[in-house]
Amino acid sequence: MAGSLLDARLLARLGTLQLRTRAVVEGLLSGLHRSPHQGQSVEFAEHKEYAPGDDLRRIDWKAYGKFDRFYVKQFEHETNLRAFLLLDASASMGYRGPEGLTKLEYAATAAAALAYLLVRQQDAVGLVIARGDEIRYLPPRAHVGHFSAVLAMLEGLAPGGRTDLARAADFVAEKARRRAAVFLFSDLFDFAPGALSRIVDLRRMKNEVSVFHILDPWELEFPFEDATRFVGLEGEGDLEVDPREIRASYLRAIEKLCEDARRLCLQADVAYELVRTDTPLDRLLLGHLSRRERSARWASR
Amino acid sequence: MGVSLTHPLLAWGALLALLPILVHLLQRRRPRPHPFAAMELVLRSQRENVRRLRLRRLLLLLARTSILLLVPLAAARPHLAAEADAVASPAGPAATALVLDASLSMRWGGGKLMENARQDARRVLADLLPEEPLSVIVCDGRPPEAESPSFDRARARRRIDEAQASHLPANMTSCVAAAAAALAESPLPAKRIFIATDLTANAWNLDAPPPSVPTEAGEVQPEVVVLDAARGDELPNAAITDLRIEPAPELGPRGHAFAFTVHNFGSKELRDLRVELWVGQEMVNRSFLDVPAGGSASRRLLHRFPAGGTFAGEIRLAPDALVEDDARHFVVHVSPDIRVLLVNGAPSPLRHRDEAFFVETALRASGAVPISVRTIDADSLPHQSLEDADAVFLLNVRAPERGVVERLERFVRAGGGLFFALGDQVDADAYTASFGELLPLALHLPKTLPSSAEEPAGARFDDFDLDHPVLRIFHGPAIEGLESVRTQRYFLLQPGEGARVLAAFDDGAPALVEKQVGQGRVILFASTADRDWSDWAIQTSFLPAMQQMAAYLARTLGQREIPVVQLGESAALEVPEGVGALVAPDGRELPLSASDGGRVNVTPELPGVHRFLGEGGRTEPAFTAFVSPVESDTRRLDPKELRALLGGARARVSEEAEIARRRETPLWSLLLLAGLLAFLSEGWLLRR
Description:
The complex is a heterodimer. Chain A is α/β, with parallel strands linked by helices. Chain A has 10 helices and 10 strands. In chain A, the strands form 3 sheets. Chain A has a 6-stranded mixed beta sheet, sandwiched between helices. The two termini of chain A are 31 Å apart. The two termini of chain B are 42 Å apart. In chain B, helix 1 (18-26) runs antiparallel to helix 2 (39-75), helix 2 runs antiparallel to helix 14 (667-687) and helix 3 runs antiparallel to helix 4. By secondary structure, chain B is an alpha/beta fold. Strand 8 (228-232) of chain A pairs parallel with strand 2 (33-36) of chain B.
């Protein structure tokens, strides 16, 4: 696996989300597993020209007879997953340390790659972008062309507004009328009481919920040395301080934030993943998918 | 009680304490802004730590300011002047003199006393107020150099640091008087003298009045503080205080006795004290002494030198705390063997009538100087070689042939000695004609004194030249041995020049005359050497006189004696020709400029053998010097007695403990400690 090529710093050099997503996905393909829902529905959807890797059993021999070209049949899998990619695009997600991607860029790339993988295995993917008071929504679709719509919505996304997880959770709960998978990409910097609980509540509505807690390494390590004037990204004001004086206290606070989130998620059977933006994306997604596959097998027994 | 600074200029360094405050103020520029997502957590951390951080910053500023404030202040060496110091300056700053005892006794303990005294002196220097001038007088036995009190602390410190205990005796009374005189040159009304000494009693003149400083307002009695370098301890010491070297005939030829006296100046008896006699690099004899406390013991160590020559050596005691007086150096001349040829002009089978009997018996008698005697008849003289003789005695010998006389003359001119004793075989005219210049004075006629029944006839010896080496031994009562001689018949001598009359008869006629001929010496006795004309041969003075005569004629007598000089005293030296310098025992060369007829006054400063340095680097012993027994006497004065001597209530004697008590609050060290704590605290706070 070309992990080094998927390093966040290298991805940051790729100008567009599309390129980044392609790099991530190509790295992922060799380790990808089949959808656990494959073959459970037979409603024909469309033909697709054969490409290496397609299942030979699905080649439409009649079409071959007519057109002298290989086509494979594609079906709408009614029982397949409906997934909501919930992306926190608040202003705090626009932060990045001295190098690499912003948290939002990292989250968008991860979401796009995940969308591709889901679409590729005929899962329906919807996109919810929470940007302060504004919520952008793309309903779930399972056909391959839908991926372009997802990509278009993510491309050039600018951070803004305050983090409001409750509002986003309510929105998703409203849209996901039946069982769905919800993938949240956020830094969880919403200190309103019970904000994360609202996300977790989605699980109680029979949804599969995964929380990708995305933080920049500088937020986790607080490596500042010189006196610094910190300026809040979401209107918290500014503060002039010697970082060395508060480092220990800050590190305890960030650790507590992560630990609280982890504990809350575990208690509600929500998958929780603390993600540093310098973590290679393929490793992140592969890890998550393999864990998800294991848990699905376990549930099917 | 007040605070004073030893180095007030350094206190200006305390202004450095402003630096942290200035840095704090100047560094209040706004730091670069950094947009940050987890601002809420930063704010929480700030709120959580605000009190602690404020306190930490305050403590840091305090620590840094303290470091920069305390270290320069400590370098200025502040200290509290306690009330006990009031004796030092009751009326403000005082002109101060510091007398540093650097006499021989301060070498006790291998220099421990001197180091204590230097330390005390440095403390005095450190305690001086900035406005107090100081004069340092090093009392080392040389004339004291008392400079005007000055503020040149560096020079004073240098004088103290360079002061070394000498080998000389010092008169502390005169040094203190010199210090008092120096204080008169300061306009400050208060006067003060510090004396760093070992309190040995002999260094003080107990009859002298207390020191006083002449001022315009009259005599001022200075405050006197005596700093006891011995810290109140006793200073036991044993020393060789006397040494006499004399021939020891009982030991045989070249035997010498070294009689010495050892004094014990301590309060405990010394038992089995080892004493060694060293000649050159060899220990030749030793003994053990018991010396009572405060008393002395004498002993003789004997040694027979194997050959003649000049020998240097020393008497050594087992070393004690003051080693300088545990050895006494000496230089001794040991005469070589003397070969004497006796020419008997009137032999007789009866020994007591033989012309040479008495002379031969006298010379053969065992003495300090071994003499080998060979006796021949006058007839054998022409055939006798003179090369193996140092002196020839012609005893009542007829005038010999010319050839014999020529040989005798060559013998004498080459350095040999010739003795004439006359008698009935001597013809005055023939003698004068034959011997000519060899005779000290020409013979005239024999004179015979008349005798009576009541009183035996005889002329007495009179008018002795007791400075002459031959007769020098007859100083004092021994002169009776010469005065009792009676001579009935003797030759009158003709007047002449170049002769020295050693003794004359009571009628004024020369009895014993000497003349220098070439390198040799000739002595003539105007009568007989047996009992024919004189009874000298049976008098007690005859034997030593003959032995002295033989030694003198053989040029082993009358050698320059090596003077012995006590350190602290001067000696007039006869400087041999060609000598331009003196080599001290430590190898230093001291130039000599002889004056007053080749004599020069020297004042040695080191014990041991000093040597003349001649042409070509040749050396010969000049004198030996020994340390003054006054300095060996390390018995100490009672502090009360010394206080009374130095002015009673205005004087005090201080020991180390008392000095230390004065410094119980050395502020500078406390400040330094506080600065160190501030430094450590700053490091600890930075890591918090």
